[in-house]
Amino acid sequence: MKPVYIFRHSPTEGAGHFATFLDRHGISQRLIAVDAGDSVPADTGGCAGLAFMGGPMSVNDPLPWIAAELALIRDAVARNVPVIGHCLGGQLMSKALGGQVSRNPVKEIGWGQVSVADNAAARDWLPGLQNFLSFHWHGETFSLPPGVSPILSSPYCANQAWVLGPHLAMQCHVEMTADMISSWCATGAGEIERHAGEPAVQQPGAMQQDLAPRLAQLHDAAERLYSRWIAGLARA
Predict the structure, then answer these.
(1) Residue 190 class from Cβ within 10 Å (0-12 exposed, 13-18 middle, 19+ buried)?
(2) Which superfamily is assigned to 4-230 in CATH?
(3) CA distance readout (Å), 149 to 11, 112, 144, 155
(4) What is the pLDDT of residues 4-30, one digit of tens each?
(5) What pairs with residue 167 in β-bridges?
(6) 184: left (phi over 0), alpha (psi -120 to 50) or beta
């Protein structure tokens, strides 16, 4: 089986639990560290799927690799190669397929409930779930590209995830680990301080409370999503 290409855009925003899940299922990975200067492949001929992780930049920034990633996403969708996006990754997918990325009404930083939509696509990707506690860290949001099905929302962000065939775009971070949360709280301390008191922004201490049960709930939802996603991977 060809590897899943994992695109990292920031040293602290790796694949986390997603990589652990792929390892457990014997699915090989190739890290493309865009933050370290790795080139974006010209097409999807060498991979079984594409995974795009988060990052502090905007998809609307004039960065040289953004256009290449948007083109690669469009190539994958045209070839029916599964694509998954986490936060920035979901925004890249949305923009590539005709959606827009703009400022969210509020910052979302920390833990918050997301609701599962009442539609067939949501029941397919998240069977048996009506809501779960997810992790968030974003100031922008995506609109829904033509033809997609929304599957997640939150009180502070209407579009938390959508699906299109084998493709999954998420605004929220289901890939988090305890180490990642600790690291983000440290590197994002200034951002947290600037937005302290806003309704969807938590302080580092609050984010790191009760981590074991919170991560257990998060990973339960993540594994349902990831299991459905890898079902679309070509096994040749």
Answers:
(1) exposed
(2) Class I glutamine amidotransferase (GATase) domain (3.40.50.880)
(3) 31, 22, 8, 18
(4) 999 999 999 999 999 999 999 999 999
(5) 164
(6) alpha
Q: Is the pTM of this model over 0.85?
A: yes
Q: How far apart are CA 130 and CA 145, in angstroms?
A: 24
Please report the pLDDT score of residue 85 as a whole number.
98
The H-or-E segment that residue 23 falls in is helix 17-24
Give yes or no for residue 234 having a pLDDT over 90.
no
pLDDT band for position 235 (50/70/90)? confident
Strand residue runs (E) in the chain: 4-8, 29-33, 49-52, 83-86, 101-116, 131-142, 149-154, 157-164, 167-170
Task: Give yes or no for residue 52 having a pLDDT over 90.
Answer: yes
Helix (H) or strand (E) holding 184: helix 178-187
Q: And the tokens for 174?
A: 């289901």
Partners of residue 157 on adjacent β-strands: 154
The domain ranges of the chain are 4-230
236 pLDDT higher than 70: no
- ∠ CA 28-31-36, rounded to 5°: 170
Sheet holding 83-86, edge to edge: 29-33, 4-8, 49-52, 83-86, 167-170, 157-164, 149-154, 101-116, 131-142
The residue-averaged pLDDT of 95-124 equals 98
Distance CA 66, CA 74 (A): 13
